[in-house]
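Work Package 4 report. The design task specified in the project plan requires that, given a folded chain encoded as structure tokens, an amino acid be chosen for each position. We show below one input record used in the internal validation round.
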């Protein structure tokens, strides 16, 4: 029996050398000294380990579900949702739920989603006033529940 195992080992070493497996993954079980007890082939394959140190796995980076801009804070109990009516002066009115502390830029994106336009094409203002700036909040402009804002489309013409 020892003769048959000795004959098979060189064959495996030649196969391993052809593929250069020993250099890539470390010494195989056939090049190590044989254990004194008889073992089945299944035990040999399960107990085979590499001699090279294992590299620590890098932690996976989680994909962020938010955009590069920070998300607005979730509504707290002291800030009630308000309904703002947006009138396009062509017979269409839309009521948009938001917070008074929302920036005008965020509110414009909500209006754009409802109206079907790009946010940069939308100008929001009170009747007879200048358009709202995106960085200020609705509260800064005195917008509260039930206020109506005019919507103008700035197509760049």
């Amino acid at each position: 029996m020892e003769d048959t195992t000795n004959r098979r080992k060189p064959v495996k070493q030649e196969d391993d050398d052809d593929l250069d497996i020993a250099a890539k993954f470390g010494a195989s079980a056939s090049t190590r000294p044989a254990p004194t007890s008889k073992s089945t082939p299944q035990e040999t394959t399960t107990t085979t380990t590499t001699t090279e140190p294992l590299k620590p796995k890098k932690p996976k980076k989680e994909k962020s579900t938010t955009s590069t801009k920070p998300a607005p804070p979730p509504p707290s109990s002291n800030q009630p949702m308000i309904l703002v009516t947006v009138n396009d002066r062509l017979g269409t009115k839309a009521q948009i739920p938001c917070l008074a502390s929302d920036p005008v830029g965020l509110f414009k994106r909500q209006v754009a989603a409802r109206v079907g336009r790009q946010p940069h094409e939308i100008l929001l203002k009170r009747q007879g006033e200048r358009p709202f700036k995106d960085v200020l909040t609705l509260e800064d402009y005195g917008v509260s529940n039930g206020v109506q804002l005019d919507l103008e489309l700035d197509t760049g013409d």
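The mean pLDDT is 74. Validation will be extended to a larger panel in the next phase.
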